[in-house]
Amino acid sequence: MSEESPRPDLLDDAQRRFPVPDYDEVPEDIRERLDEETERAGFTPNVMSALAYKPSHFRAFMAFHDALVDDTTLDREEVEMIVVAVSGRNNCLYCNVAHGALVRIYAKDPHLADQLVSNHRTADVSDERMAMLEVAVKLTEEPDAVTTDDLDLLYEAGYSEDEVWDIGMVAAFFNLSNRMATFADWRPNEEFYGMGR
């Protein structure tokens, strides 16, 4: 961390149902990751503060998250659109607010995240992206109803096999994240609310 970089601030109210550790209490590798993210964002995302409660889970969660956003055939805007559509259906406050900010930034659209959160079918997106959202939301609401027909819908919309895999993986991972955020009552940072507006 450079001299000008803010020190990570693990807020006590990052999650309301489990304690948040002090920065000095977490293992060195996690402090390094917190330092990097705080320097990049200008604040410490509460999800990271919350996950620091259990270091092995922090490492696994962040490694999976990083793989989803760094090693994907989807563009980042599409990844964040899936996250917000899924999180909207799951009523996940943290992800709706935090990833809503990312949708606004990556899509360069101040309205899209709100459309996706309230009802993805109202979103001003292409037919291809609507197919992507339909399948992601179906996997969220009715996972046992997903069939090869849903994958075929994505192929017909123009998605490659790798993109179809990534759509399913992003939706599945953020369903997990939404459930933990609700269970532990993760709270979005104030900074997220105004980003990309």
From TrEMBL:
NCBIfam families: ahpD_dom, peroxid_rel. It comes from the Archaea. Residues 1-26 are annotated as: Disordered. This is Peroxidase-related enzyme. Pfam families: CMD. Residues 55-102 form the Carboxymuconolactone decarboxylase-like domain. InterPro entries: AhpD-like (IPR029032), AhpD_core (IPR004675), CMD-like (IPR003779), Uncharacterised_peroxidase-rel (IPR010195). Keywords: Oxidoreductase, Peroxidase. The keyword Transport does not apply. The lineage of its organism: Archaea, Methanobacteriati, Methanobacteriota, Stenosarchaea group, Halobacteria.
